[in-house]
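Run log // design_07
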């Protein structure tokens, strides 16, 4: 059985809805899934999981949430080399550059992106929920 962590931050509930779908997709494939907020997850925990899904919306000038998520992610970056991960998040403005930048950052860290990242504008629609379930299944 694969051990999967889902680590996310959500301000409006949009990214939380996406995280719920990632969890459902991973569990449907038999994974043992643990869910964490950024304040609950640290670099010392990375090795406990076969795969990790990180979720964060675009904030400000298309950056990761800066108070909780960014500090946690900066902390775990050094532990991501060779780790199977997936990224997801929602956005309200801009063109999605935050996800492109985040993906590049993860590749530079040596992380293995197991499937295309999932982004949606505002609340995820049925297609985005299905994509998030697929993301969870791919991690399992």
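design_07 sequence
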């Amino acid at each position: 059985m694969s051990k999967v962590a889902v680590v996310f931050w959500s301000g409006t509930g949009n990214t939380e809805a996406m995280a719920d779908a990632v969890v459902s997709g991973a569990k449907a494939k038999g994974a043992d899934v643990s869910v964490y907020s950024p304040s609950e997850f640290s670099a010392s925990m990375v090795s406990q999981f076969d795969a990790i899904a990180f979720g964060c919306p675009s904030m400000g000038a298309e950056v990761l949430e800066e108070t909780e998520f960014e500090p946690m992610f900066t902390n775990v970056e050094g532990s991501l080399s060779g780790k199977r991960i997936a990224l997801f998040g929602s956005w309200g403005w801009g063109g999605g550059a935050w996800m492109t930048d985040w993906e590049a950052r993860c590749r530079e860290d040596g992380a293995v992106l197991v499937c295309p990242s999932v982004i949606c504008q505002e609340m995820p629609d049925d297609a985005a929920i299905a994509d998030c379930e697929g993301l969870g299944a791919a991690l399992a």
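The chain is about 35% helix and 20% strand.
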